[in-house]
Amino acid sequence: MSLAFRQEAPGPKGYPVVGTGPDLVRDLVGTFTAAWREHGDLVQFKLPGKRKMFLIVHPDHIKHVLEDRQPNYPKDPLSVGKFEPFVGQGMFTSNGEFHFRQRRMAQPAFKGSRISAFGPAMVQSTADLIESWRPLAERRETIDITPEMMRLALTIVMRTLFSTDVSARAGEIAQAVRTCNAYTNTRLQRFVELPEAWPSKARKEFLVARALLDKFVYGLIADRRRSREQHDDLLSRFLNAKDEGSGAGMTDKQLRDEVVTIFLGGYETTALSLVWAFSLTSRYPSVEQRIRAEVAEVCGDREPLASDLPKLKYLRQVFAEVLRLYPSVWTLSRTPLEDDVIGGYHIPKGSQVFISPYLMHRHPEFWTNPEGFDPGRFVTSATGGAPLYAYIPFSRGPRLCPGSSVAVLEAPLVIARMFQDYRLTLAPGHVCEPTSNVFLYPRGGMPMRIERADAVAGVR
């Protein structure tokens, strides 16, 4: 279709002057969902000023942006600019050749036997958490498992990718990351721009949290530069990397940005997928029982191994379905460099284009019983029988999440090991709803009762 025919995409009318800005700030997940259901697979939102914002929820349109015309759709600079005070210029925020150079350096750390070698650290970290929960289980206490999974996932990512044990400080560091993310999320949803240094309580808390993280990360870098011990991990790959043109290595600031990028996307996403997984297995007891039976059959009384995963077929199907319903990265944003047409609608250059895996995974045209929890849909297909770009928990195309292979190893191993000792039961009356944040957090946390598995179901 010619760009001369500039058909405007449909969308909610919004309010005078401010458009749909207040609704997006109030409830981004709910506003996106309602607009999609009312207006279809390509929605335009009216914002203050001349800014244009679109939501696309169709596999063909998503493929167009993430693969077919990917060079025309770099990461949205407006959103990236709001992340930079926290993460700097790492793989998450960068575009172009710099991004792909950093990605090429990191990619070998996430492949093949290297990933399988992470298994023992993942299982041991889970066993350590299990041990710390013993008093809770004896008293059958109810706790919010969200910060617990954050602490666990951070311990795992530091042990596996950075050869560093932070278990003693994992809670403190995870809370600092969460504070920085909360501040970033507030800025992302602010449609009336304020100066980045605008004084506020939230900004003060952000600066304190960022300073704590910087002190920790720069200390980690300094220790590794001084050490003569050899490590075959992600940090060493970055330390040893040389620019192809100048031969110069990465500065401490560049190293800091990449480490913090891993903090942002390398552990929090997996932690949240575990939170949603345990909530779903609690809500569907037959699924939980089947996982326990499979783990008992494959592993017996020993701890699970990475080599067990091919046999833990049902558990892997369950995790795939968890990622369908609650993909941790629930939106992706891009900005076209040139005018484009998607689905017959004009997409002007410089606009914000949002892709929502959360909504794409609930599209009734591509999913049977889209709101239901049905691990069986993944028995014969890695995409649940849907088109490739209808299942995008880790994105697709050239910017596919490099750590996806770690997540699909880590989460099933954690679940298997946890179920050998405990049953996690959702607090009565708690409603599991997602809330819009940088990632897909549960509204009100995820309160769950911790019980010994053998006391409940005669397991182990």
TrEMBL record:
Against InterPro entries, the record matches this protein to: Cyt_P450, Cyt_P450_CS, Cyt_P450_E_grp-I, Cyt_P450_sf, Cytochrome_P450_Monoox
The answer to keyword Metal-binding applying to this record is yes
Cofactor needs: heme
Keyword tags: Heme, Iron, Metal-binding, Monooxygenase, Oxidoreductase
Q: Which CDD domains match?
A: CYP132-like
- Provide the binding site for heme: C401
Q: Which Pfam families match?
A: p450
Would I find Metal-binding among this entry's keywords?
yes
What PROSITE patterns does the record point to?
A: CYTOCHROME_P450
Molecular-function GO term, any one = oxidoreductase activity, acting on paired donors, with incorporation or reduction of molecular oxygen
Q: Which family does it belong to?
A: Belongs to the cytochrome P450 family.
**Under which name does UniProt file this protein?**
Cytochrome P450
Taxonomic lineage: Bacteria, Bacillati, Actinomycetota, Actinomycetes, Pseudonocardiales
